[in-house]
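<context>
A single protein, sequence plus fold
<entry> Chain with its tokenised backbone below
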Amino acid sequence: MFNDIPVLQVVGFKNSGKTSLVCKMIEWATRSGISVSSCKHHGHGGTPDGVKNTDSYFHQKAGAKISGVEGDGMLQLSISKPEWQLDDILSIYSHMKTELIIVEGYKRERYPKIVLLRNQSDHRLLQEIENVMAVIAPFPIEEQKEKVAYFSRDEMKEFKEWYLSWVQASLKRKRKGVLEDA
């Protein structure tokens, strides 16, 4: 949790299906009435592609640390800083009215993780990261079965049920904590 907002990471190597899964997870939670925010780590090197040749782009190029544009209720921000830590980004998100944050990437961070494996050679990732809650893989995995939920790529219905149950339990703990503090 980050400032009482549940955070869930989706990690895996390139082309493992992270973005597709995150989109499904956002859609499932939203359909359940849960307000979701997301953050993606641009792990390909260099800065992410921005919207070139716009006024906010020119503001940023001129030296603005934060440049933004709003229209029809959509606010897009660009914020320049020498280095961003995930907690810095999450602190910005914590000021929004969101109930869940899904993070794509940032393998080394400490938040609960769903790990996507493409093949047997990706299996090493499970030894390299911490706080694994679930694994989706095209092959069976036996270790830590009592602590980690495992799903095949054909078990997305079961994964969806597990995920929504985890979200509901996290929100219930959050609400209970708020009620206890009152």
Notes: The chain is about 30% helix and 20% strand. Strands lie at 7-12, 36-40, 66-71, 74-79, 100-104, 113-116, 132-136, 149-151. The radius of gyration is 18 Å. The mean pLDDT is 86.
